[in-house]
Amino acid sequence: MKVLLCHNFYQQAGGEDQSFAEEASLLESRGHEVIRFTRHNDSIKEMTSWDVATRTFWSRESHRELTSILQQQKPSVMHCTNTFPLISPAAYYAARAERVAVVQSLRNYRMFCPGTYLMRNGKVCEDCIGRKFAWPAILHKCYRNSRAGSAVLTSMNAFHNARGTWSNLVDRYFALTNFSRAKFIQAGLPGEKIDVKPNFLLKDPGSGTGASGFAVFVGRLSAEKGVEILLNAWTQMESPPLLKIVGDGPMADAVKQAAQSHPKSIQWLGRLDREAVLNQVGEAACLIQPSLWYEGFPRTILEAFARGTPVIASRLGSMEEIVQDRKCGILCEPNVLDLKLAIEAFFKNREAIPAMRVAARAKFEHEYSASSNYEKLMAIYTTAIAIKSQKSPDVTIK
Predict the structure, then answer these.
(1) Is residue 120 part of a domain?
(2) Within 13 Å of residue 311, how many CA atoms lie on the same side as its CB?
(3) Domain residues for 96?
């Protein structure tokens, strides 16, 4: 099968960028021909605000280039990871004109939440779900704290929603969890078009030992990741285990100060390469994921399960679905007291840890391996192609 993969890279590399790369490599490792069409947000620095706004609605350049690729390469399916802002929904129209099946990953909530995360002021926010025009996002400046930017994104979503772009021009969507699938249906996407395909690891790092006995946090040091409640929970324990914090971000100073004030119980390791991260996760007794937002499908949890490391996570959104409470980890409410109690319970009941490690590793092998993910991805492509073969071409925007 020949597959056209489309992705707009972010200025700061993230999980979506990694998922795009791993899905491409997965397909190529199974003998498929992969064509990559990409844009990078670094180029925004050279554009005016007007140029960015107009391309967000409709990129003539992307439409023209994709039309040429589709006509010359004739792929069986076009799979978009992220089209915002420089590829734009124009990609769908180009594919529809050439009668090529379209698949869209649903890796964030930007389609109906200009703030992307369904979060505002440190709390879950669903004010814009189901609205035809998400005016609260403009009022609260949800996109990069900019009312103008929020207005552009909100208007783009409303325009394409009204045109039927989301409901008619994409043949198949896939969400990362059943939880996020339900949110997209609540927002108005047709449920019959949305499959569930989780993240995966292309290379299995193998199970770790957990022998070092510390806890580890891996991720962006920011408010939505629960860094503040993590630090507060740790400093309120009488005899806390060692906590290693891996990552960087806007709350780095707070983490650094906590590590300096509590050198025996908190260590900040900063950014590490992926191999070093996997080593830390494999040696840890548990991974802590105290996020305050719904999350998509945290790769940190995926990597922990691959290493056989149990996870203590917030009982919130997709995390509640991924982490089986008291089996491959512990779920807790996203607050300081409940996180503290969960951590203390985990380390107090050490005899239960080996069974949790076995369960975490088994969950990875059965649900998140490359082979199982490949089967799910091919089923989605096959369904999209079958749907496309039954449809007649639509009129495109000129």
Answers:
(1) no
(2) 29
(3) 2-107+164-201+370-389
Q: How far apart are CA 257 and CA 251, in angstroms?
A: 10
Q: Would you place residue 62 in the very low, low, confident or very high pLDDT band (cuts 50, 70, 90)?
A: very high
Give yes or no: residues 374 and 288 share one domain: no
Residue 170 belongs to a domain with what CATH number?
A: 3.40.50.2000
- CA torsion sign, 126 to 127 to 128 to 130? positive
Question: Does residue 350 share a domain with residue 292?
Answer: yes
Provide the mean pLDDT of the chain. Answer: 93
Indicate yes or no: pTM above 0.85.
Answer: yes
pLDDT in tens, 143-192: 988 999 899 999 999 999 999 999 999 999 999 999 999 999 999 999 99
With a CB cutoff of 8 Å and minimum separation 6, the contacts of 144 are 150
Name the 3-class secondary structure at 81: strand
Supply φ then ψ for residue 236, to 5 degrees: -90, -10
Q: φ and ψ at 104, to 5 degrees? A: -125, 125
Beta bridge partners of 293: none
* Residue pLDDT, tens place only, 236-273: 999 999 999 999 999 999 999 999 999 999 999 999 99
Closest C-alpha among 32, 170, 52 to residue 101:
170
H helix count then E strand count, the chain? 16, 14
Pairing state between β 172-175 and 194-196: parallel
> Could you tell me if 197 and 221 lie in one domain?
no
Q: How many domains are there within the chain?
A: 2
Using alpha carbons, select from 253, 357, 352 the residue that is nearest to residue 307.
357
Residue 224 lies in a domain: yes
Place of tokens 């909100």: 154
Provide DSSP, 281-334.
Answer: HHHSSEEEE--SS--S--HHHHHHHHTT--EEEESSHHHHHHS-BTTTEEEE-S
